[in-house]
Amino acid sequence: MSRLRIAVIGGGANSEHDVSVASAASVTAALDPSRYEVLCLTIGRDGVWWDAAGSAVGLGEVVSLLQGCAVVFPAVHGPRGEDGTLAALLDLAGVPYVGSGVRAGALGMDKWTTKLVAEAVGVRTAPGLLVTHTRSIPTDIALPVVVKPVAAGSSHGVTRVDRQDRLPDAIGAALALDDRALVESYISGREIDIAVLACADGRRIVSAPLEIVVADGLFDTARKYDGTADFRVPARLTPDEQTLLEQAALAIFDALGCAGAARIDFFLTDAGLVLNEVNTMPGMTAQSQVPRMFAARGLTYPELLDELVRAAMTAA
Hints:
The chain has 10 helices and 15 strands. The protein has helices at 17-30, 59-67, 85-93, 102-109, 111-120, 167-175, 221-225, 239-256, 289-295, 301-315; strands spanning 4-11, 36-43, 49-51, 56-57, 71-74, 128-132, 145-149, 159-161, 180-185, 190-198, 204-206, 210-213, 230-232, 261-269, 272-279. The strands form 3 sheets. Strands 10, 11, 12, 13, 14 and 15 form a 6-stranded antiparallel sheet that branches.
C-alpha cells in the first residue's frame, strides 16, 4: 500500500514561532512512517519558508510542493498562521488541510469578535472594551482588569492590572503586538479548558476537561511553558457543570464554524461559565493540553492525528 504524502508546516512569523516548531516536530515524529510520507516545511520568523534540508524555498515552489501532497497539517499557531492566513493559501492552492478554514480561523483568533459571537449564542464573556492607538485610555474602568492583544497567542502581551497608573503600560505592551487591545474585567474562578474534535464520519468528540491551577491565578506566557502550572486532567466537575461546559464549547465551535480540533477556554465562577478564548490550532505536542485532554477520553496522540488527517481529507 502506498503511503499518504502529508506536509507538516511549523514555525511562523510571529511570537509563537518556537511553540509551532515544537508542535510540528512532535506531529511529524508521531505520524506512522509506514502510512505517511512526511514533507516538513518551516516558516521562519522573517516569513521565509525553509525545507527540511535547511534550504530557503520561494512561495511559488512552496505552493508546488504543497500541491504534491494529499493533505497538509499546518501546525502554526498565532498570527499569519492560525488566523486563517495559511488556510487561505491552502484554499487557493486547492490542497486539503487539517483544522479550521479561513472564517473560523480569523474569527477565533480575534478575541473581540469571539466575544460578540459567544454572547450571540448565549455564552457569557467578561465585560470589556476595545482600545486602539487612537482611542483614549479609559479612566473609569473598574479594577482589576486583564489587558491583552486582540489577536495574539500564548498569552503574549497579557497583563493583570490592579492600579490605574499601571494601565497605560499594560495597554502599551498589548498594542506593541497588535493594533487593538482588549481590556476585560478580571474574572475570579477556576480556569477550565475543553476541546472539540470534528471527526471524518461527522461525529464530534468532546475531550475531558482540563483545569489549570497557578499560584497567583494568572496563566501568563511564562507559566505556560516553565512547568509551574498544574494541569489537572480530568478536571473535577459536577455532572451539571460538565454538561454546561460541553454544551457551551459545542455552541461556540459550531457558531465559529470550526473544523479539526479546537480548544475552548472558560472560567468557572460561582455565577456559571465565562468564556476566556478559543484556539482553533492549539498546541499539538504530545504533552500539549489538547492531546492530553483527548488521551483522558481514550484517544491516543497518534489516533488523534490520524483522525485529524482523515477529517481533512473527507472535507475536501
